[in-house]
Amino acid sequence: MMEEKTFEKLLNEQEINEVKKGKIIEGKVFEINSDGIWVALEGATGDVFVSQVELIKPLQEYQVDQKILVEITKTNDAEGLNFASEKRAVWNETMNKINEGENYPIIFKNRLKKGYSVLIEGLIGAFLPGSLSLLSPKDDLPQGEKMAKVISKNGKNIVVSIKDYAEEKISQTFNEYEEGMVIDGVVEDIKNFGAFVRLNDHLNGLIPASEVSWDEKISIKDYLKVGQKVKALIIKLDREKKRISLSLKRLKENPWKTVDEKYPIGSIVQGTVTKILPFGFTVKIDEGLEGLVHETEIFWGRKGRISDLVNVGDDVQVKILNIDKENKKINLSYKQVSGDPWENIEEKYYEGNIVTGTVEKVLDNGAIIKIDEGITGFLHVSELSWDFVDDISTVLNEKQKIKVKIIKIDKDNKRMRLSVRETKENPWKKASKEIKPGDTVKGKIIRFLDKGAIVLIDGYEVEAYLPASKASTNSKSLEETYSIGDQIEAKVLEIGLENEFKRGNMIISVTHLEEEREKEEALQVINEMNEE
């Protein structure tokens, strides 16, 4: 049989269930209107209305059946309604939880004469002295939440300190950190002497420039960027001065310690060209490991221009020749990776072979032609054309592609002689057969010499010599009579060809032709007079 309730218990229950002003009660949302919400109180009789201005969140963020804490602000108004405030309930609950010496999130509200007005947990007003804010008077009001320590609470008067919070966190950090630990951070600033890394909101560490990389030549600004996330090793903790020194390179082993194990002599490795020198080029094969390719280990044949072969930044394969760990030097070979192309040259090239090459260098007496990687040949100016070439630079340009005939291979000395003219039949063979002394030919003046001009004969691609004395019957000089490109007609005085492998020669005369035609005209006039 249930125990009957005593009068005292009934009074207590009635008081508990009674809706009184100032009472804090939990309730459940059962209706949402345009200007507020209705809440059914739990453990009390009646409902309350909470207007939008008394809510701690925007109206649209509330849902039916959601539980909230409210404080009764008015009961049985003229219309018999009860009103409540969520803000006041949460404010009181939050205020009761705030204790001196504890840390809370704050939001900056206003700048005051000697500090700042802030809100703890977004609700409770507090004062932050300027001297404890870690801010300069010129700084903008911080946005978002910051953490602060409550250093004084007297009723509703609360004083907070960001400085005390920061010092506490710094001390905690130093207690947690030990030398040899690996920690995470974000690069905040970069100077020539090192990089500052943010470890938390109030503590930075320094990576000295010498601790960034095993590569001593690298620039810290090329290795790190502001905002970059890094893992670093703690190499020194100064708890008294609150300083932390960090290292990136010590997360990796000194590459010179195991260089001979990782890169045995004779092995072929991949690297990047870092510098072009007058006597070779350097290659980075690993962080902190750089070797030299001497010019003697670049070219198999004739020494060329290094910049025509590799450029800074190129990835190349090189062979390890020698390692000097004590002096941190590595000798490398570029040419030995591909092997000596002259060793089995007869398998690919032979005398009489016509190939395409690239003009590598133009000289006064000829040109160096690149036939293949490591294989070059010499093209003498006399082998450039069946005609005479006065200035080779007017015919060839560097990097120009040309067809050449291999006329001589000297494997032992790694030399090759080439010819352009022998890639086509000697035009003098045809000219010497078809043109005889006394014949009349036509051609174009292509250049002047000291005592004459060179004429390219039409239809034969051979050059004839026109002496200045045979150029005209008038008294003017050759240059006054003719210009480059002028078409002329002349009589062949001499033509000869020693053999089909040499250049022929031809001498022509304009004056002989003019005199002959004058005689013909004179005879014609005499004949006409005799007939009359």
UniProtKB/TrEMBL annotation:
<feature type="domain" description="S1 motif">
    <location>
        <begin position="180"/>
        <end position="249"/>
    </location>
</feature>
<dbReference type="GO" id="GO:0003729">
    <property type="term" value="F:mRNA binding"/>
</dbReference>
<keyword id="KW-0689">Ribosomal protein</keyword>
<dbReference type="InterPro" id="IPR035104">
    <property type="entry name" value="Ribosomal_protein_S1-like"/>
</dbReference>
<keyword id="KW-0687">Ribonucleoprotein</keyword>
<dbReference type="InterPro" id="IPR012340">
    <property type="entry name" value="NA-bd_OB-fold"/>
</dbReference>
<comment type="function">
    <text>Binds mRNA; thus facilitating recognition of the initiation point. It is needed to translate mRNA with a short Shine-Dalgarno (SD) purine-rich sequence.</text>
</comment>
<dbReference type="Pfam" id="PF00575">
    <property type="entry name" value="S1"/>
</dbReference>
<feature type="domain" description="S1 motif">
    <location>
        <begin position="438"/>
        <end position="511"/>
    </location>
</feature>
<feature type="domain" description="S1 motif">
    <location>
        <begin position="352"/>
        <end position="421"/>
    </location>
</feature>
<feature type="domain" description="S1 motif">
    <location>
        <begin position="266"/>
        <end position="335"/>
    </location>
</feature>
<dbReference type="InterPro" id="IPR003029">
    <property type="entry name" value="S1_domain"/>
</dbReference>
<dbReference type="GO" id="GO:1990904">
    <property type="term" value="C:ribonucleoprotein complex"/>
</dbReference>
<dbReference type="GO" id="GO:0006412">
    <property type="term" value="P:translation"/>
</dbReference>
<dbReference type="InterPro" id="IPR050437">
    <property type="entry name" value="Ribos_protein_bS1-like"/>
</dbReference>
<protein>
    <submittedName>
        <fullName>RNA binding S1 domain protein</fullName>
    </submittedName>
</protein>
<comment type="similarity">
    <text>Belongs to the bacterial ribosomal protein bS1 family.</text>
</comment>
<feature type="domain" description="S1 motif">
    <location>
        <begin position="22"/>
        <end position="87"/>
    </location>
</feature>
<dbReference type="GO" id="GO:0003735">
    <property type="term" value="F:structural constituent of ribosome"/>
</dbReference>
<dbReference type="GO" id="GO:0005840">
    <property type="term" value="C:ribosome"/>
</dbReference>
